[in-house]
């Protein structure tokens, strides 16, 4: 690439960044500051996002390693698939975060050790590098801190991190691998460091959507998905909460799936005890969402079609939601075709490495 090509590329990526962040920037800046400084901040935001999108457009790979681990990422990958981390050596992280399903679970509630049922749907653990909060209620602030959760959760791996480390210390192969990578015997801290490092390699951006945005080539995205993108950003208001390169603003919002009765997971409120947080959940990113069903914290929707129909008219599903976001209080009045188009757009966020579940994803069709 010569300098001119690089400049054009950067400009294109800037527009891409602006599309994903602009809404947020404007929503938060409006009224707060003078017009002049608004422009300066907007330019700054575009710059930062350009850089982020640029980095995002160079995926580091992940989940491909075979043989003896020599880096902390590779060692973390081995541990991610290691059943000995669970009490009875029956499940690993990958049992619930299934690689072919975008590192999410296909069951509404995952089965842990002894067939115990958890209380929430297992989300994807790909594209988590930039997340400031983890879990639906945001109770973990880093991937390192998060990793201990499932190892010790009674409904998941039901072990202790100390016991997990002890087992690895009894395994000559692990001792040698930890020596090579960390110049240390296995410790709880290093187990968490390795797993978190592996998770940071699971960034995905080889998708029809990214190719279309970066190359500005309209043949790279189906016409239906292009219409869906337009709806996502405007009429359907999805961008209000699903923005940024991973389609989440990392905020906690209430989409109306809490009524204190049938739907009684109060989400973020469990952590903060602030009544304003009642029924709020961390907005999930939408990359690879076509392969990560079922959906929502409770896995109540099996398909993307059901999710979109819900957003179109939430009151049809939950009659008396508590503390529901004002953005969603009126029906969207989407036509059948418009809902198909939004689904096509969501499918276009699927990375090439995952099996496409739907014909809709094939570029150039429809
Ligand atoms: C028995 C099933 C199960 C196992 C085993 C399991 N998880 Fe999870 N995982 C879940 C569930 C369910 C959630 C959501 C819980 C919640 O939000 O309260 C989750 C959430 C996560 C998240 C947060 C994602 C986000 O965007 O907030 C990460 C990261 C994660 N798990 C990684 C791991 C790692 C690493 C391991 C192995 C050490 C592991 N999980 C083992 C079921 C499981
Ligand atoms: C007011 C904020 C808000 C708006 C607007 C919004 N979402 Fe969401 N979205 C969320 C939250 C919060 C969740 C998680 C809710 C839960 O788990 O109970 C979610 C979950 C989802 C999921 C499920 C993801 C998963 O992995 O389970 C999909 C798909 C989705 N939204 C797509 C959309 C689409 C398409 C639109 C526009 C029609 C939209 N969202 C509008 C906040 C929002």
List the helices and strands and how they pair.
Blueprint (H helix, E strand, L loop, with lengths): L2 H27 L5 H22 L15 H9 L12 H4 L46 H10 L8 H9 L2 H11 L5 H12 L8 H8 L7 H11 L18 E2 L15 H4 L8 E2 L21 H9 L23 H12 L19
Antiparallel strand pairs: 1-2
Helix pairs in contact: 1-2, 3-8, 5-8, 10-13, 12-13
Bound molecules: heme C (2 copies).
The count of helical stretches stands at 13
Q: Strand arrangement, largest sheet?
A: 1-2
Helical content class: 40-55%
Element order, helices and strands? HHHHHHHHHHEHEHH
Report the radius of gyration as a whole number of Å. Answer: 21 Å
CATH fold-type name of the largest domain: Cytochrome Bc1 Complex, Chain D, domain 2
Helix/strand/pairing category: mainly alpha
Largest sheet: 2 strands, antiparallel
Percentage beta strand: under 5%
What is the residue-averaged pLDDT?
Answer: 86
CATH class of the largest domain: Mainly Alpha
What are the bound molecules? heme C
- In CATH terms, the superfamily of the largest domain is Cytochrome c-like domain
Please sum up the structure shown.
This protein has 366 residues and is mostly helical. It has three domains: 54 residues, no CATH class; 128 residues, Cytochrome Bc1 Complex, Chain D, domain 2; 154 residues, Cytochrome Bc1 Complex, Chain D, domain 2, CATH 1.10.760.10. Helices cover 40% and strands 1% of the residues.
